[in-house]
Design a protein that fits this description.
By secondary structure, this protein is mainly α. The chain is built from four helices and no strands.
Length: 127
Amino acid sequence: MVERNRRDFLCNLSEPGKQELLQGLKRHDQVLLRGYFGQADAAEEKLEHFVSAVFSADVPAQLLVKIHIQVMDQLAAQLKMEGHSTAFLKDYRLALVEVMARLTERHRNAMAVDPSSFQPTRSPETA
């Protein structure tokens, strides 16, 4: 299990730190996508590395989806410039689904291990 340090959370980083983290996640996603349909062991390792990085930085799901879409758009533009079809890129949505599923599982397991870390928030209406 990956240890999480609140100082490393995206929301707690300086602006340059945030930009560095986001660029790193884009690079990780590119590497993941390049190898996703390749060798199973290598793809598994890349997938776990990416999920660990996202989990450790507490990256919001909406931002993760945005990063994936940006990477996909860049890949589609590159393929079009090279005269290749982009039809197969729809299959790469599976990578995002798998990342989200593993991230959800990682959060569920983290809460099960340390239930005291889960503190429900109260809305102003119920306080």
